[in-house]
Amino acid sequence: MDKALRRPVIAGNWKMNNTPEQTKALIDALKPLVADADCDVVVCTPYIDLYAALDAAAGSNIKVGAENCHWAAKGAFTGEVSAEMLKAIGVPYVIIGHSERRQYFGETDLTVRDRTRAAVDNGLKVILCVGEVLEERQLGITDEIVRKQTKVALDGIKEEELASIIIAYEPVWAIGTGLTATPAQANEVCAVIRALIAELYSKDAADHIVIQYGGSMNDGNAADLLAQYDVDGGLIGGASLVAEKFAKIVEAASK
Ligand code: 13P
Question: Which of 27, 42, 206, 212 could make an S-S bridge to 168, C-beta 3.0–4.6 Å?
Fold first, then answer.
């Protein structure tokens, strides 16, 4: 196996931050800082900011993503946005199954599966989030939880569709808390996910799938995390809101 088979992906998850005007300013600040990146660079923004983000990022190496999408193409789903709609405005990436969606908005493994299906059907690249809560880690069931979340989400996804899937391992206890998984802890669970991909698909699929770590990744700890064999990138919250910090993480991934 060769880590070089996988091009790192550094994605910012802006969560519920930034107006369209702030979006433009942040992307404009980021563009020159990441222009020479030797990894994929993505910023995922609130729906309201997507047009501004696409416009600001046009012609640069920064790709834009949404933070969720619905499983239906259209219909009576107040407040939701479909994968088809994202595709229609040219958004290439979407985060699905983020722990904040699971925690606060009733997202389940099954809705994550359905949203993933819709995104893939519409040609979007999915950043599929999985991860255990603190209690699950303390109970020693992290691997079991992460395997189940991943397996259900990928139910129905064929091997040739895996090129559209990035998996983000985000231990919930590390998100927004300043508590980062150690590089070894991050690598251990990313390796469990990769082994599951080999089991469900093939060794070749496992060798090629991009698995990110997320959870208090920042410009200080990124290099050590990204150096791990099974960690192919990062999904970054807080530090993605500051151009210089995010750019340093991109730089660490480009080495
Ligand atoms: P923080 O980097 O703020 O911990 O957030 C991580 C995250 O949830 C990215 O999706």
Answer: 212
User: Which of 47, 34, 36, 37 lies closest to 82, judged by CA?
Assistant: 47
- Number of domains the chain contains: 1
Pairing of strands 233-236, 40-44: unpaired
CATH number reported for the structural domain that contains residue 161 in this entry: 3.20.20.70
In this structure, the residues whose C-beta lies within 6 A of any atom of ligand 1 are: 13, 98, 170, 175-176, 214-217, 235-239
| Cα-to-centroid distance, 75 and ligand 1 (Å) | 31
For residue 7, the enclosing domain spans 3-254
pTM value surpassing 0.85? yes
Query: From first to last of its 255 residues, what are the pLDDT tens digits of the chain?
Result: 578 889 999 999 999 999 999 999 999 999 999 999 999 999 999 999 999 999 999 999 999 999 999 999 999 999 999 999 999 999 999 999 999 999 999 999 999 999 999 999 999 999 999 999 999 999 999 999 999 999 999 999 999 999 999 999 999 999 988 888 899 999 999 999 999 999 999 999 999 999 999 999 999 999 999 999 999 999 999 999 999 999 999 999 998
Strand (E) positions, 113-169? 125-130, 165-169
Beta-strand relationship, 125-130 and 210-214: unpaired
